[in-house]
Design brief:
This protein has seven helices and nine strands, in the order αββββααββαβαβαβα. By secondary structure, it is α/β, with parallel strands linked by helices.
Length: 272
């Protein structure tokens, strides 16, 4: 890895984005599978396709677009990343977290990461939201591997409280949105897990499983950002019900829960 070039790419991408809008948002929202309707709530938008930002690779997953949107959410300026990069697409882990590094460079202080996830804890059902209180990232290649960027964060960052979840939970309860605080387990994908893997995760204390978010949360917290993680439980994880999993189901349920997700995010953004 050419770290000098990587850092230069981060700076170039940040310059391209900041030159598009005089306003300097401090909140970024990453939209997961099937959760892109939040973008419709933004006003005064400026869209920048990832393809025109230096260093941004292309998104390859159906249901994920590749657009960065600058705009106001209930009068609060935000950056929306509509489409993210996954390890399973074949990207190196540094590429997966490239946009998060760029957000740090832009001065983002609050990173809201959303995703679709399979429910392991049987108390959650498809359509519910889970506020991530912690994660199991042992099966994820470290996004901090390689040269440390001391100007962003320390070599050996503490991980005792990666997620800021308490106020998000209060907002969800206030809005009467079915919502659980839970542990998100990372799986590399793109295959869904086997029932035995889900039993393992369950023994390890995971409440939900998904193929994103953990690398981004690690890098955002490394950079000192406040991280809020929200999973939309789109299905029971493998083996919990006696039926196979489908990507179509994941996308459909994501759309249904998107309204709750949207209302919760607006509350969180207005609160900061
Ligand atoms: N496993 C992994 N990722 C997922 C799932 C799942 O069951 N559902 C949505 N994303």
């Amino acid at each position: 890895m050419e770290w000098t070039k990587y850092k230069q790419d981060i700076k170039n991408a940040a310059t391209k984005i900041s030159s598009a809008w005089a306003v300097k948002p401090t909140t970024c929202i990453v939209l997961g599978s099937g959760l892109s309707s939040l973008a419709d709530s933004l006003e005064d938008t400026i869209e920048i396709p990832y393809s025109s930002i230096p260093g941004f690779p292309q998104v390859t997953v159906v249901g994920h677009e590749g657009i960065l949107i600058l705009g106001n959410l209930n009068n609060v300026p935000v950056i929306l990343l509509k489409g993210r990069f996954h390890y399973y697409e074949g990207h190196p882990i540094e590429t997966v977290v490239f946009p998060i590094r760029v957000m740090k460079e832009l001065g983002i202080k609050l990173m809201i990461l959303t995703n679709a996830a399979g429910g392991i804890n049987k108390e959650m059902k498809p359509g519910d939201l889970m506020i991530i209180k912690d994660h199991i990232g042992l099966f994820c290649e470290s996004p901090l591997r390689g040269e440390n960027f001391d100007e962003y964060g320390p070599r050996f960052p503490d991980q005792s409280s990666v997620y800021d979840y308490k106020s998000a939970l209060l907002h969800a309860n206030d809005l009467k949105i079915p919502c659980f605080p839970g542990v998100y387990a990372y799986a590399k994908g793109p295959m869904y897990e086997t029932p035995a893997e889900i039993r393992l995760f369950s023994h390890l204390g995971a409440d939900a499983v998904g193929m994103s978010t953990v690398p981004e949360a690690i890098v955002a917290s490394h950079g000192g950002m406040k991280v809020v993680g929200i999973s939309c439980i789109t299905n029971f994880a493998a083996g919990i019900l006696d039926q196979p999993l489908s990507h179509a189901e994941v996308m459909e349920v994501g759309k249904l829960a998107a309204n709750n997700m949207k209302n919760l995010i607006i509350r969180i953004v207005l609160d900061c």
